[in-house]
Amino acid sequence: VARKGCHAVTFSEDPGALGWPNIFQGHWDPFFAACQDEGTVICLHIGSSSTMLGLKDGAPFDVLITMTPLNSMSAATDLLWSNVLRKFPDLQFALSEGSIGWLPYWLERIDYVYQQHRFWTHQDFGDQLPSQVARDH
Q1: Is the pTM of this model over 0.85?
Q2: Which of 2, 66, 78, 96 has the most CB atoms around its CB within 10 Å?
């Protein structure tokens, strides 16, 4: 497909929500490897898992619209802690239509979580902070 000019593919922000394997067990590694090898960007669009944060009874639809970017934040968090970004250092992702206002908070938070909890969660980013790894992707 890449030889025919494909530079990006769409992938679910949460394949597990669709009944497919999630990204944590390596099932998608051949796909990720192929995308990395071909320089194909993986696009994760909000709602691509057919799930969104639910509305409480009586809440206006604006609540759902306001919370939609959290799907992108959740997808980015899954990718970061799943080891996908470390296993495929040249793989590129695009978080489509998820806004970016949450990004500064998220970058600060992932570093805090790593620095405070890595010894018992056994995460290892080597000599980098999670925010540095995230920025590379």
Answers
A1: yes
A2: 78
